[in-house]
Prior knowledge:
By secondary structure, the protein is an all-beta fold.
Amino acid sequence: MLDLLSTAxxxxxxxxxxxxxxxxxxxxxxxxxxxxxxxxxxxKGDSMLPVYHDGxxxxxQYTNQADPGEDVLCSSVAGMHIKRLxxxxxxxLNPDLPFTLTSPDDHVRIxxxxxxxxxxxxxx
Length: 124
């Protein structure tokens, strides 16, 4: 059983991360993508196309560390996002929708790593 967070993670403009309530709980079959998952969250927006689509649900493992090349759930002043971690910070996969910080005081905090997309076959 995994938490399904009620706030979407933006693949575009962010959503506030503070005190994200749990919307629901979902039973899933254990598999290689979700065995380390702590929860699921919905993707909102198109900045992570072609990998993640608006409306996808993804598995999240809570951690504040990740390696370059991994996709992460992160927060900034603009809210919560799903982005790819590079050597110089996080970025969007869709070149038409680049990720930018909103001010010189803004910074990115990693909340977790994305473990994969929840498929229909994962749920009973």
